[in-house]
Specification:
Blueprint (H helix, E strand, L loop, with lengths): L7 H31 L18 E2 L2 E3 L3 E3 L4 E5 L8 E9 L7 E5 L5 E6 L12 E4 L7 E7 L6 E10 L18 E3 L6 H6 L3 E7 L8 E9 L3 E4 L14 H5 L2 E3 L10 E11 L4 E8 L25 E6 L7 E13 L15 E4 L11 E4 L4 E7 L13 E5 H11 L1 H6 L4
Antiparallel strand pairs: 1-13, 2-10, 3-10, 4-9, 5-8, 5-10, 6-7, 6-9, 11-19, 12-13, 12-15, 13-14, 14-17, 15-16, 16-17, 18-19, 18-21, 19-20, 20-23, 21-22, 22-23
């Protein structure tokens, strides 16, 4: 028998290769197990899934600058300390008479121009009351406010503002069919039809100024004819609050350019035309924000479908899940065209089957997102993620309100709006 001689270095090398082989085998097994686990539905939901199906996603913070700007002054407003903000929104309270030669200019921290407006841009205030207006989302964490003019006696108070972060700070509820979301940035999608109707979808950011402790949240919305937007009723307030008050409407902005493009298309909520809790919708009258960043020209709007929703019908959603720039959830289907509404009785009667189930991936922030058929026609309004039953086990079904039900309600309640919407 011959014995192979090994030097100490050779023994060390062999031992190293042995350890590397064992490590590689272990990593392979771990990756295989994770891959298998990701394809299986969870046996039980995590605690964050045991939330209301009308959950809102936190997206911003109220703060109180306490600034007064008079003619000839320039003052700065910064985001709250220790809060990383991507944009600010300001509430301007104008007391007194603004002269024809007056102009208010808003700039970022490097004094780049953001917006300007004068007397002709402002709505008429109520007699004896100061004029209160909101700006759109101003893309900076520090804003300078300059007030120019000679004849003006007005003072501009900025006592209320909103700081918006780069991404949501809210919790996820995991209304996903798999571990990895089946959505993509809109303009990176291979679905051309989604890109063509994506301009009709916007990010809604709102809150209740009268209850600032409740924070600021986001939803999605879709543009309709006549400068009107459709979103969820529950996007107008937290469950314990009054929804869509005059104050919360005024503090809400709709941004149809919240994507990776360079054109901002922002609107303010001017009036809640009609809303309904049972059908979870609100129809909002919009007006362009003052200064730059508002809409230019007539906006594209969604075309309503007239066909009856069927089981396994292919659909897609364009949305702002987690308050992110526009996303499209595609390669999904209607899974149940006859679902009882979220406020229905038990057992429901036939008139209460106002919703349908779908398997498009969503998260909070997608509430109010339009559901489209493959021709790009509007068929529904997404409004709820997974429900949880005994033991917090999710039903793994997302829910949308049928557009046909919303159309019928508006026709019976506000036929004048049906005409404005071209839904006759």
């Amino acid at each position: 028998m011959r014995t192979r001689f090994q030097s100490p270095r050779g023994k060390s090398t062999c031992a190293l290769w042995s350890r590397l082989h064992r490590l590689r085998t272990t990593l392979f097994l771990v990756i295989a197990c994770l891959s298998l686990f990701s394809q299986l539905p969870p046996a039980r939901a995590t605690g964050s899934q045991c939330k209301s199906t009308e959950a809102l996603t936190e997206f911003g913070r109220w703060f109180n600058p306490g600034i007064v700007v008079r003619v000839g002054e320039t003052k700065e407003i910064s985001a709250p300390l220790n809060y990383f903000a991507k944009a600010l929104r300001l509430q301007l309270r104008i007391s007194g008479s603004i002269g024809d030669d007056s102009i208010i200019v808003l700039r970022d921290k490097d004094f780049h121009f953001l917006a300007s407006f004068g007397l002709s841009d402002l709505p008429a205030p109520a007699p004896g009351s100061p004029l209160v207006i909101w700006t759109g989302n101003l893309p900076s964490d520090q804003i300078s406010v300059e007030y120019r003019g000679n004849s003006s006696q007005a003072a501009i108070s900025i006592d209320l503002a909103i700081a918006l972060p780069p991404s949501t700070t809210g919790q996820r509820v995991f209304s996903l069919q798999r571990a990895i979301p089946r959505w993509a940035p809109l303009y990176q999608s291979t679905l051309t039809q989604a890109k063509l109707v994506g301009d009709e979808v916007g990010l809604m950011v709102g809150g209740s100024p009268e209850e600032q402790g409740s924070g600021v949240w986001c939803c999605s919305a879709v543009m309709l004819p006549g400068d009107m937007a459709l979103t969820n009723w529950h996007c107008g307030g937290l469950p314990e609050q009054a929804h869509w008050t005059v104050e919360s409407c005024a503090a809400t902005v709709f941004d149809f350019g919240w994507d990776d493009g360079n054109i901002r298309r922002q609107y303010s909520c001017s009036e809640v035309l009609i809303s309904n809790e049972r059908l979870d919708f609100a129809l909002i009258s919009l007006t362009s924000v003052i200064g730059s960043g508002g809409i230019i020209g007539s906006p594209p709007f969604a075309i309503a479908s007239d066909h009856e929703i069927t089981n396994d019908e292919p659909i897609f959603l364009v949305h702002h899940a987690l308050c992110e720039p526009k996303r499209v959830s595609s390669h999904c289907k209607v899974r149940n065209p006859l679902r009882a509404g979220w406020r229905s009785t038990s057992p429901p009667n036939p008139s209460e089957f106002t919703e349908f189930e779908h398997d498009c991936d969503t998260e909070p922030g997608a509430s109010g997102a339009p559901a489209f058929d493959l021709d790009g026609r509007l068929i529904g309004l997404h409004h709820a993620g997974f429900n949880t039953g005994p033991g917090c086990v999710p039903d793994r079904a997302n829910k949308a309100i049928k557009l046909s039900e919303i159309k019928a309600f508006i026709k019976n309640t506000r036929p004048d709006l049906t005409k404005r919407l071209n839904w006759e």
